[in-house]
Amino acid sequence: MGRCYVHSCCFRTKYVPKLDQLGMAEAHQAVAFQFTITREGIDLQLSHEALRQVYLSGLRSWKKRVVRLKNNVITGVYPASPSSWLFVVIAILATMYTRSDPSMGLIAKIQEHLPASSDSLSVQCQTVVSAVLFSTLLWLSLIFTMKLCLKQLLSYHHWMFEQHGNLSNTTKVWVMLVRIFSGRQPQLYSYQGSLPNLPVPTIKDTIKRYLESVRPLMSDSEFKRMTTLAKEFEDSLGSRLQWYLKLKALWASNYVSDWWEEYIYLRGRGPIMVNSNYYGMDFLYVTPTPIQAARAGNTLHAILMYRRKLNKEEIKPSRIPGTFIPLCAAQCERIFNTTRIPGDETDSVVHWQDSEYVAVYHRGRYFRLWLYQAGRMLSPREIEHQIQRILDDPSPPAPGEEKLAALTAGDRIPWAQARKEFFSSGVNKRSLDCIEKAAFFVSLDEEEQGMMGDDPEASLDRYAKSLLHGKCYDRWFDKSFSVVLYKNGKTGLNAEHSWADAPIVSHMWEYVLATDSFRLGYNEEGHCKGDVNPSLPCPQRLTWDISVECQERVRRSLAVACALADDIDFHVFPFRDFGKGNIKKIRMSPDAFIQAALQLAYYRERGIFCLTYEASMTRLFREGRTETVRSCTSESCAFIKALEHGKPADVCRRLFRTASEKHQLLYRLAMTGAGIDRHLFCLYVVSQYLGVESPFLKKVLSEPWRLSTSQTPFQQAELFDFVNHPDFIICGGGFGPVSVLFVFQVADDGYGVSYAIVGEKLMCFHISSKHSCPQTVS
Fold it and tell me: SUPFAM superfamilies of this UniProt entry (predicted)?
């Protein structure tokens, strides 16, 4: 008789793909075993190759667990080492051998309280066991003491306010002690347990600094009114709110970061495209290969190499440039396998432990591309071969598939509702899960981008807009980051902002670009080096069943996203007249110099000064993210007015230096937890929880930031040799013209300015504004 029942067990995929979408060879590899029930019994057929793949994949997973456990132990005992336990045990036993009691009777006490089952042991064995237990307790106590000492040492920040090369004796002693207690060869997360908590500034200091920051922006009557509101707040409601904030600071690792992530990012109901996401560019002057698939092969492989180093914690801890002071690495935990999930009231950030594939978009189709086989990472040449298969695939998109990602580009509530209605079960849920659980997202673009043609400046502007929003449906804006690979071999990325700040992604991107060009390289034809494995299974097409109603939701989201994208005016330009080297020759901070230049440019265009946002970091503290530097100060305004009114050069130089020193002071205060805006923001959140209104806080948080600025840090200079390879220059990245309020709102009459200081002779600027505002032109 014929077969009455067939069962297949699959590995890797959660469901059996249709045979018309996978070749017979791939389908065969996807089936580990088959059995059929007949009258004669059960006929069992095993695929040894498939079982081998399952075994090797599981072996890789267990190896990762062992490495993770080992790293947790090493990080947990840092600044000591696991081997130091053996040293302590031997030292205690050796001391006891000399008939001395280093425990002052504690070993004997431990021996008395050993469980009854130990009576079978000899007295000597009981003594050794007790000594080992005492040694372990002593070792753990020493570790705790060292961590506590290091935490107290890292809480000292006075060194930041001392002149370079003129350190006080206190700071010199502090430097020596930090080096002693810092241990050797720290891993990525070694310092996490020793970083201090972010301190809560006093109400009095925050209000004083706030009033000082708004004085040049207000008339006398406005400032008097604000001073009155501030005084009333300080004398009444402020103390009550401050008490709750201090209570949270005692309980939480960081009193700002969780509220900042939730209320500033995740509760925003407008589009995250342009308003929240940001981008990073490729090399400015060089394209390592013009072959799209080859560039994808090296880029994706380099990203996997970075992830492997990240998982093994082999990446060196980030530090303040030029020092040995560590920075918090908590944000690194969510670089990969992370997605923002939409909700009706608030979104959520979901992170998975591991993912062996990426989701790829090309010409309206979605693919799952496995990056590991038999427990090993695919080589660049193998990834290139797989990407080329996707590029050569002639199949058309399914109905509604092409512009599906527009849901992630539009308003968040419609996307959350559509996700519940159309993607909560069946084939749509499986395909959406595949995208959201991918290591990251890859977009194979059919356009050519980069600095090229007769008008290189205009081409850079188009390149920036393409990375920021693309066609509004060819990037999955909810993924932690999306890699974009263009037809001419150019690349770039788009990153979601809620899970981490730009320096984290920038650190990864620097490594990827350097590894792509200087370590992996290409052959003479422009292809990745190595051989192709022809037995690799084809990338899998994701299947969808998009209803007409769902397609209408996609169309609406796309209309919202396109209107926003079309309104963005972008200009990117490399400034080569002078750079950091020239600025340092006049003993001035390059960042303060650029901020003064931006203030001057805005004043010349508008004739007024504006509230200016400059992002600083607070990663000196555990789980620290950012703080605001209010760059428009009374000192900078005085300099600009003197310059514009034709005051003598020596007067302008003196005022310029005063403004620069003031900016550096504000930046250092922000870095050391004495900023203004995060404290006021958290006080406002507490007031909302308590259901009380504060006219002062409401006024503060309603002030628009018409100039939003940020420096893209260049962190790994050792990866690039600008002397021998001067053309391999990274152009940085940029963002849209946003106003950082309680929820994201676009500042229609404002600018977004990102700048990167590259080497000694180049500065790159990324300027965004809105076409709809007649007062702004990027």
Answer: CoA-dependent acyltransferases
